[in-house]
Every structure is written in C-alpha cells, then in structure tokens.
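Try it yourself: sequence plus NAP, in.
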Amino acid sequence: MIWLCVAGVLIVAFLIFHKLFVQRRACTSTATLHGKTVIVTGSNTGIGKATALALALRGARVIVACRSKQRGEDAAKDIRRESGNDEVVFMQLDLASMKAIRSFVETFLKTESRLDVLINNAGLATAGRTEDGLGMVFGVNHIGPFLLTNLLLDRLKECAPSRVVNVSSIGHSMGTIDFNCINTHKRLALGTSNRDIFKIYCHSKLCNVLFTHELAKRLKGMGVTCYSLHPGSVRSELGRDLNGTFMNILKCISKVLIQTDEMSGAQTTLHCTLQEGIEPLSGRYFSDCKLQDVKAEAKDDEIARKLWDVSERLCGMA
Ligand SMILES: NC(=O)c1ccc[n+]([C@@H]2O[C@H](COP(=O)([O-])OP(=O)(O)OC[C@H]3O[C@@H](n4cnc5c(N)ncnc54)[C@H](OP(=O)(O)O)[C@@H]3O)[C@@H](O)[C@H]2O)c1
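Structure, out:
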C-alpha cells in the first residue's frame, strides 16, 4: 500500500513538473525572413544555436554574436551547412565587457545595413565579476543586453516593424530586485555558493522581464515591439559552472526529467520573433508559445523605471 502511495506522489510530482517546465507547443508561424537581419546572442550552443538555425532555415541573415571566436565561427559554419543559408555570420560579442559591447555595435552598424530582430539569448549562472566590476550574472544577463539593446535602438527604429526578444526564465518568479545591493555592490545579491548564484540568476531573469516591460513603454508608437519569455527546460551547458553534491544530484535528476532537445527550447523565442499579430502584447512575458501573466513585482511600473535609471547610470548612459 505504501508503495502505491509513493508511486502516486511521484507521478503527481512528475506531472506538475512536466506542466510547469516542459515546452509542449511549437511555433506555428509560417513567416519567412528573406531580406531580414537577426542578431542572436550566445548562439554558439544550446537554445541560441537552435534559434539561429531555425531562423537561417527561414531565410534570415543571421548574426551569430558570441564571446568565443572559435566556438562562434564553428557554430556559424554548422548553421550554414545545416540550413544551406550562406548568410550566417559570426561577430564577436562579450557581454561581460561594456567596451566589447560598444565595439560590437560599432562594427555591426558599419558593416550591416539592417536590423529586424535582436534576440538577447545569452545568459549564464556563475560567480565572478565583469570587466566593469559588476557581478557577473547581473552584468551578463541584464546590464550587457540593456546596453546592447539601447545602442541598437536607432537601427531597429529605422527598420520598423522590428522586435527585441529577451530570453528570461520561469526562475524570474523567484527573483527580487535589491536596489541597495546594486548601488553598493554593483550586483543583485551577495554570495558565491551554488545556492547564492541560483538566487542571483533568478534576480537577473526578473530584470529581463522588467526591462522588457519598461522598454515597451518607451518604444510605444515607434514600430519596435519587445517580448520576454521562458524557453522551457533544456539540458544545455547553462549549469556548467555549478558543481558540488547538491548540483550533481540535480544534474542526474535533470538527465531523466528534462527535455534535451534544444530546438523545442527555441520555440517560444521563435514565436515571439515571428508570430504575426502579437504587437499589441509588446512588453509582455511568454511561455510555451503563449502569453503568461507575471507576479506583481515583474510588472511594477515604478520598479521597472527605477531599474532602467540604475542600469543607465551603470552603463554611463545617464
Ligand atoms: N536551459 C534551460 O533550461 C533554460 C531555462 C530557462 C531559461 N534559459 C535561458 O536561455 C538562455 C540560453 O541558455 P542555454 O540553456 O542555451 O545555455 P547555454 O547552453 O549555456 O548557452 C548560453 C550561451 O550564452 C553565452 N554567453 C555566456 N556568457 C556570455 C558572455 N559574456 N558574452 C556573450 N555570450 C555569453 C554562452 O557562450 P559560451 O559558450 O562562450 O559560454 C552560450 O553561447 C539563457 O538566457 C538562459 O538563462 C535556459
């Protein structure tokens, strides 16, 4: 009898996990992207690489924007081969350095005439500091995409209708924004344990949702729309820097429970990039290829505006 109860609990837990985390829907848009240019950050591996491949298959000119020259060039070559699209080019972009971001934008604006979609996909969960002294997770997951997007806004406006797609995570719902910590330590929270890093990661993903919320307001009427999203749970390289017994057990469990197919992890990004008619939903959050509501803090006008102001100051834009 007790085994039946245990089995029942496990099945219910699995079904809840499946419902909450596993991506089931696919992007149904049939839009093609011939003549359009898309930047996908962090597209040398994981969800970003699958996204870049899917967009290349639809005819886009794809800028594979990655920090490692070798990994980025190899990925661009793979995508060209698999898609048969020669318009897939690598450009170096390290989101942990504002100087490198500015240099990427300078090269991009000089060499490319269009920008139709910017996909802020790159992300990490690791300790350390960026070149500019920001907490690494805060710097790469929020401040880097914030600066990159702002520097590319004029080109996006020129190419309207255009879009910005920010890859967040369901983890944003466990995040919070500690402005005192940002002001004092240039990070979202303190600590270096796996648990701390996981928490800081969730805070940074909340920043993605709030950034999108505020960006939509600032872009209203300009033909540029923006969306944030959870891509589903994909066993990618994201947890590569998180070790220790607890993380190793989690990784073993994830081998059994989590889908590994990066292409299914790309579906909500593709939906936000391609789906016709979602423009009135600019600034909102998507999961499993559909609109999802977020907690009050993730759509709070005042918090979003304050985060924008702090981010501008940290980027030297204010
Ligand atoms: N996998 C999931 O289950 C899951 C769930 C929710 C949300 N997400 C989000 O989905 C996005 C993609 O994650 P993923 O799972 O595909 O992870 P991944 O396999 O680790 O890929 C992350 C990408 O980001 C790049 N990146 C890291 N630091 C960078 C930097 N400083 N500058 C430029 N690029 C940098 C990585 O480049 P390198 O290879 O050079 O490190 C890699 O290309 C992330 O934003 C993540 O938060 C993933």
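One thing you can check immediately is this: The chain has a mean pLDDT of 93.
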